[in-house]
Structure formats: structure tokens, C-alpha cells
Design brief:
Rossmann fold; seven-stranded antiparallel sheet; alpha/beta; 617 residues; 27 strands; Glutamine Phosphoribosylpyrophosphate, subunit 1, domain 1; globular; 18 helices; binds fructose -6-phosphate
């Protein structure tokens, strides 16, 4: 959470910093700020609220922390967009935070900031903000005697927790220093068009300017000047680092004519589903040998654990259903923040699959580390290449879904589910539960799904109509059974996340054990019924809520015959075999949530209180 950027070069930096911050705003938008060198002095402009609401008007007024500053010509600076952890969203808690000699932007959490603060107060320092970050600034100042590297090394030896820091030191007016542990940080290399160099929390932030970057690892220090980038380890030894190049285009990180990133990303699903599976299928069969998940390895595992947070965990529930149903292997699926503290029973005979779009989620990372400690093999299903989870896992399956900018996950969830199919087929085949021929049949059916998803995107009238019926509700329920229950969870999360309507998902058969008392004519119910063996049972439950006044939106197969009196609005899905319905079903649920949020006028891509990358537990 929080995004950091920096630029030093031959061009004015403020527009570059603001533009790069806009691309990082998905990481948090409680406040934003920049700090630049002005004739050797550090000037800071920062404000509560989103970039366009607080920071940009401030800069346009030429206002900084103390003076009036014309922000048009400075060439070295750092910037930050914040998701508040320590201290409420406010101007004073915004980054950059500095004291005239040292100024920093920070992504992460300093766990031992209280002890450091006490020490610094004893040493005569006073504090203005409630942030943990201010302790790092003051500690850097305490150790800074004209040698920035020495100060950084001493501070890194004392602070505990996760951090990526961009630092300006008075006396070095064209240089940005950077260091990291856990939180992500890259160093971008400029070119003839943009002479200069960058830092950023992710590559998408600076792709407008360059595609070449270095990945900073824990304990590495970067010294970024207009015409050079140098790396040192924490003992001051020079490092040679590999220059990487992004292999996707900047258009992937832009809205491309859609009103919101979320809508664009929903529309990208047919193409990313097709391309992501293509690289994992060889000769008609799933193939993960490239990442080390061979048939022999799969056969050596007796149990499977799937761990993730939010939508990623929901994808894991589909995975459990498939792995157990087809592969007949025992699978535990859990929320990472719970699992990591539940003393899970796993050992060297097990495989722990962690799922994470960002590859940075703190609880998922901790779950992965725990699984490794217990001797289990770890497999990460991750979207962001080179992310912390990807690097920490024994094996990685990259989702190749392209950048997902909207905070609300859509295409990443769909591809996570798709990867669950491929893994489940690979396991089922390796365990000898199906023949290669049967597996090829499954794969051929999977390959048809992108086309079916495309069909769902052709006409949005039904989703808009359903949205117009739920947009004024104060609360609603999503119900389903089996795989449909897993999809209800995902649909409910999407809706509450972006429309702010309270919603719960419930196993349809469990309603009458308590929850049905919530049903009134003001409580709409979204019922998902796609699983042939369970549809009649679900329809009985739908009739129970209908009889108590609920308005029912039924999401079901187009060919399914269902008593018209059982529902108010019907959303039809194209036909596929039962096990493949999740990838189809998720699309109308995403769009119902999307249009409900649009009709209620919420900030779809940046819903309140959230951030895309959750690097705190
Ligand atoms: C919901 C959503 C979140 C994420 C969760 C895990 O729309 O996006 O629930 O799925 O925060 O994030 P990753 O996958 O990055 O670990």
C-alpha cells in the first residue's frame, strides 16, 4: 500500500511525478505529495485527498509547506500517494515527510517506531505527525553527517518492518537515494527522450517514460542521479544488477476509451483468459514443467493447501472444489490472515498454493513463509512479475493477465480461477484419475470459455436492469450452493466493495438456520443457480425468500426451465458443463456490481478506504 515515485534528470520533474503518482493511486489515495529540490533547498507540497483534489490544486496555486513556490522547473524530486496506516488521512500525516535536511517517501510499516521515537525524543527531537515514517526521517537526520549512505546503513540496521524508501538529502540536490525491505521498489532507467532516472513502486507508474528498469532487492541501496544509477549492498559493496524490460504496452495501463478501468478490465477477460491459458497448454494438456511442477512432483504430494485473501481466496474455493471433485485429493482452503495464525497442520508431503494478483499481500506472503518453514513445497499463482511472493515461492505460475489497475479485481480473479482449472487438471492427470484423452477433452472445453465470456459482454441491458433494482437497497443477500456459493461470495464482495451496499453471501441451504429472518421486501436476493444437480434445491430456497417478500435476481443457464414465479429478474448465462460455469458466472456478477456502483455515483476504480496492494497485515 502507498505508492512512491522519484525522478532526477534534465527535465522538469513535477509533471512526471504527478503523472507517475496517478498510475500508483490504486495503491492508496488518502493523500498525495511531492518534494523537490529548489536551489538546494527541499520544498514540499502535500495534501489530504486524491491527487486531483488536494495536491494538484495546491501545486497550481504554487503553494508549498512554507513558501510560495513555482513548481515548473525543478528537476529532482520524489512523490507519494498514501493509504493511511499510522495516523489518520490529513495534510500533516501526508508524505513526503522531512525536516529540511532529510526528506522521505515511505511505503510499508516500521514496527519498532515507538522505541525509535522514544530514543529520538530523548535525543531532543520533536514530532509533528502521527506517522511511523517520521521516526525514519528523524533517525536518518540523527545519523546524517554529510554521508547519506552511512546514514541509510545505520538506519536500516535499526528499523524493523517493511519499507521501500525514497530519500532526499540536503547537500545532494540532484540525487535520490532508495532502499527497500519487503515493500516493492524498482529503479527506472531513462533514455534520450527522457534524460534522467526514476524510482517507483511498480513499473506501470513510469511506463509512459521508460520500459527499462532494475528490481531492487531487500537490503540493496540505489543511488539515482540524472545520468547514472548505482547499487550498493548494505555493507557498501557495489552491486551489478540486471536491466529488465517490461514486455507489455503502456496502453494496458490506460483506460482506452472506457469510463472506468474496471469496465475495461472486465472487457479484457476474453482475451486474457485465452492468452493466459495458451502458454500453459502443450499438446492439448496442462503443462507446468517450466515452473517445476512436474507430474512426479505432483504425485509426491498427499495434501493440498490453498491460501489467499479476498477474491484470490474465492478463486481458491473454486480450486478446492475442482481438485477434490476431479483429483480426489484432500484440499484445505483458507483466508491467509486466519491460516497463518491457526498453526496449520502441513509438512514436507504437502503443497501449499498461494494466490495473489499483486504478489505483495502481507498475509499471503506470511502464509507462504509459514508453509516453507513447515517443510511444504510452495507454489505461487501471481500476476505481478518479480513481486515479493513470486520471488519467495519455490514455484511460480504467472497469470499473465496484464496490469489490473481498478482496485476491484475482475480479470485477475477470472484468470486465477482459470489457473485453478489447469492445476486441477494437471493434478487429476498426474494422480491417474483421468486419462490423457479425458484431460484433453477438459482442456478443449476450457478453451471455449473466452468465446462464451465474449458473448456475455455483447449486451449489458440485463445487468443494468438488475442494478437499477438493487441500487436503493440498504442490504442484500447472495445465495447459491456448491460452486454457485463460491461465486455468490465473489459477487457479494464485488458489490459491497464498490457500491457500499451491505451484502452477505450465504449457502442457500443454510438460510433457514437464522439468516432468513433478515429477509423483507426491502432485501433483494441475488440467487446463483448453475449447477445442474443442485438447481432444484436452490430454487426451493429461492421460493422460500420470495414467499417472504424478497425481490429475486436469478442468475442461471439460458436453457434452464425455472418457474417464472420464483424470480423477478432473470440473467441468463450461455451453456457450458457444470464445472466450467464459474468463469462464465463471474462476469454478470461483476457487471451487476459495476452498474450498481455507477448508478449510485461511487468512485468505482478507487472505492473508499481500500488500496490495491495490501502490504500490511
Ligand atoms: C476484491 C479484491 C481483493 C483482493 C485481495 C487480495 O475485489 O481485489 O479482495 O483480491 O486484496 O489481493 P492480491 O490478489 O493482490 O493478493
Amino acid at each position: 500500500m502507498c505508492g512512491i515515485v522519484g525522478f532526477t534528470g534534465q527535465k522538469p520533474c513535477v509533471d512526471i511525478l504527478i503523472e507517475s503518482l496517478r498510475r500508483l493511486e490504486y495503491r492508496g489515495y488518502d493523500s498525495a505529495g511531492i518534494a523537490v529540490f529548489e536551489n538546494g533547498t527541499i520544498r514540499t507540497a502535500k495534501a489530504k485527498g486524491k491527487i486531483n483534489e488536494g495536491l494538484v490544486p495546491l501545486i497550481n496555486r504554487g503553494a508549498d509547506d512554507l513558501h510560495t513556490t513555482d513548481f515548473s522547473h525543478q528537476t529532482c524530486g520524489i512523490g507519494h500517494t498514501r493509504w493511511a496506516t499510522h495516523g489518520e488521512p490529513s495534510d500533516v500525516n501526508s508524505h513526503p515527510i522531512g525536516n529540511g535536511r532529510v526528506c522521505i517517501v515511505h511505503n510499508g510499516i516500521i514496527e519498532n517506531y515507538r522505541e525509535i521515537k522514544e530514543f529520538l525524543i530523548g535525543a531532543g527531537y520533536s514530532f509533528e505527525s502521527e506517522t511511523d515514517t517520521e521516526t525514519v526521517v528523524k533517525l536518518l537526520d540523527y545519523y546524517y553527517d554529510g554521508d547519506p549512505i552511512e546514514a541509510i546503513i545505520k538506519v536500516c540496521a535499526e528499523i524493523k518492518g517493511a519499507y521501500a524508501l525514497g530519500i532526499l538529502f540536503r547537500g545532494f540536490p540532484d540525487t535520490i537515494y532508495a532502499v527497500k525491505k519487503e515493500s516493492p521498489l524498482i529503479v527506472g532507467k531513462g533514455n534520450d527522450e527522457i534524460p534522467g532516472n526514476f524510482i517507483a513502486s511498480d513499473v506501470a507508474a513510469i511506463m509512459e517514460y521508460t520500459k527499462d528498469y532494475y528490481l531492487l532487492e531487500a537490503g540493496e541501496i540505489a543511488i539515482i542521479r540524472p545520468d547514472s544509477v548505482n547499487f550498493l549492498d548494505i555493507h557498501r559493496r557495489p552491486l551489478h544488477k540486471e536491466l529488465r524490460t517490461v514486455d507489455w504496452d503502456i496502453s494496458a495501463a490506460k483506460k482506452g476509451g472506457y469510463e472506468h478501468f474496471m469496465l475495461k478490465e472486465i472487457h479484457e477477460q476474453p482475451s486474457v483468459l485465452a492468452s493466459s491459458m495458451a502458454v500453459r497448454i502443450k499438446n492439448g494438456l496442462p503443462d507446468f514443467s517450466e515452473c517445476g511442477l512436474t507430474r512426479e512432483k505432483i504425485n509426491s504430494y498427499s495434501r493440498f493447501f490453498i491460501v489467499g485473501c479476498g477474491s484470490a481466496m474465492h478463486a481458491g474455493i473454486v480450486g478446492k472444489n475442482l481438485l477434490e471433485g476431479l483429483g480426489r485429493v484432500p484440499v484445505t482452503v483458507d483466508i491467509a490472515s486466519e491460516w497463518r495464525y491457526n498453526d496449520p497442520l502441513l509438512d514436507e508431503h504437502d503443497l501449499c498454493i498461494v494466490i495473489s494478483q499483486s504478489g505483495e499481500t502481507a498475509d499471503t506472503l506470511a502464509a507462504l513463509k509459514l508453509a516453507k518453514e513447515r517443510g511444504a513445497d510452495t507454489l505461487a499463482v501471481v500476476n505481478v512479475v518479480g513481486s515479493t511472493i513470486a520471488r519467495a515461492a519455490d514455484m511460480v505460475i504467472y497469470m499473465s493477465a496484464g496490469p489490473e489497475i481498478s482496485v476491484c479485481s475482475t480479470k485477475a480473479y477470472a484468470v486465477q480461477v482459470e489457473m485453478m482449472y489447469l492445476i486441477a487438471f494437471a493434478v487429476t492427470l498426474a494422480k491417474g484419475k483421468i486419462t490423457e484423452e479425458k484431460c484433453r477433452e477438459y482442456i478443449a472445453k476450457l478453451q471455449k470459455l473466452p468465446e462464451l465470456v465474449s458473448q456475455l459482454l455483447e449486451d449489458k441491458t440485463d445487468y443494468q436492469y438488475a442494478a437499477s433494482h438493487i441500487m436503493n437497497a440498504e442490504s442484500l443477500l447472495y445465495i447459491g450452493r456448491g460452486l454457485d456459493y463460491a461465486l455468490s461470495m465473489e459477487g457479494s464482495l464485488k458489490l459491497k466493495e464498490i457500491s457500499y451496499i451491505h451484502s452477505e453471501s450465504y449457502a442457500a441451504g443454510e438460510l433457514k438456520h437464522g439468516t432468513i429472518s433478515l429477509i423483507t421486501e426491502d432485501t433483494p436476493v441475488i440467487a446463483v443457480a448453475t449447477q445442474t444437480a443442485l438447481i432444484d434445491k436452490t430454487v426451493s430456497n429461492i421460493k422460500e425468500v420470495k414467499a417472504r417478500g424478497a425481490k429475486v435476481v436469478l442468475v442461471t443457464r439460458e436453457t434452464q426451465k425455472i418457474d417464472e414465479k420464483a424470480y423477478d429478474i432473470r440473467v441468463n448465462l450461455p451453456e457450458a458443463a457444470d464445472i466450467f460455469m464459474p468463469i462464465i458466472t463471474c462476469v454478470p456478477l461483476q457487471l451487476i456490481a459495476y452498474y450498481t456502483a455507477v448508478q449510485r455515483g461511487t468512485d468505482v476504480d478507487m472505492p473508499r478506504n481500500l488500496a490495491k496492494s495490501v502490504t500490511v497485515e
